[in-house]
Specification:
Blueprint (H helix, E strand, L loop, with lengths): L1 E4 L5 H15 L8 H4 L2 E4 L3 H4 L1 H4 L1 H7 L6 E11 L5 E4 L7 E9 L7 E5 L2 E5 L6 E5 L5 E4 L10 E10 L12
Antiparallel strand pairs: 1-8, 2-3, 3-10, 4-9, 5-8, 5-10, 6-7, 6-9
Length: about 180
């Protein structure tokens, strides 16, 4: 399942978190791998970001009634520049629920996130404050194509990761 959630964060929250990213970037090294993202800069941020795992948790339950309890895993923030991309991938096994929120975008074009679920391809563009919620992120391929923008432009994405403790993917066989 994949959902576009318009305005999951306010403009003010996005501005605050974007400024916080710029402050924290000074003292952090990027843990991005060039082969996975090309021209990007990402790291695990501070409590200012991590608190959103709890703040946004109730929204997860609105979109999937089968999920009644989730564990916070981590957050990550990535700054994308011209020629950046996100390689086709599935998330780690401990990350089944992923939300990607656009905190800032100075580009003048769309740059969607793609996902392939049950053989069908989905794509969603996010404006500032919009989020994409992906269930089964550890089983469904998702990616972003190469970003083509001016050298002084960027897209800042905020990733939140959870693991449901009682979520069963519909394709999972069970004897119960």
């Amino acid at each position: 399942m994949i959902h576009l959630i318009k305005g999951i964060l306010t403009k003010e929250e996005c501005e605050f978190l974007s400024k916080q990213f710029d402050i924290e970037k000074i003292n952090n090294f990027s843990s991005d791998i060039k082969a996975d993202t090309n021209e990007s800069f990402g790291f695990r941020p501070s409590h200012n970001f991590n608190k959103y795992l709890e703040i946004l948790k109730p929204r997860i339950f609105e979109f999937n009634k089968e999920v009644t309890h989730i564990e916070n895993i981590n957050t990550y923030v990535r700054e994308y520049y011209n020629d950046a991309f996100l390689v086709k991938h599935i998330d780690r096994k401990d990350i089944s629920v992923t939300m990607s929120i656009c905190l800032e975008s100075t580009i003048d074009t769309e740059w969607p996130l793609f996902a392939k679920i049950d053989g069908k391809e989905y794509s969603f563009n996010t404006n500032v404050g919009d989020g994409i919620l992906l269930f089964g992120a550890d089983k469904n391929i998702h990616w972003r194509n190469t970003l083509n923008c001016k050298e002084n432009q960027r897209v800042l994405q905020f990733f939140l990761h959870w693991s449901p403790s009682n979520f069963l993917i519909k394709n999972t066989k069970s004897l119960i």
